[in-house]
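[Primary structure, fold]
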Amino acid sequence: MKFPIFHHPSSPPSVKALGLLRSALSEPFPPGKGPLPLSFNLEVVEAPPTKDQLEHANLQNIVDLGREKPNTFKWPIVVDWNAGKACIGDADGVKGILEHLRQQRDGEVPKE
């Protein structure tokens, strides 16, 4: 499962979200409770998503903003393409996406 984070290294929430994702790959998840790390292919992209990735022409303004003024763009963007879930600018949103992956791993919800 490909799991991108559209990351900006000078954004504290983006750095925090990337740390959460990397920890979920290398340590039991949830922390202190989980039996195993999660399994997904983390892709770190230090650029905003492309228009094609967003699959909606009305979101071109967001793409342009990310390119032209990256410090005003709300980083990070973490996307679970398979589940159709995303979080923008919120490291805590990453926890929800990781929890969904844990539920899939543990058979609590069907895999997508």
User: Anything to note?
Assistant: Helices lie at 12-26, 51-54, 60-68, 91-105. Residues 12-26 form the longest helix (15 residues). The chain has a mean pLDDT of 84. The longest strand covers residues 2-6.
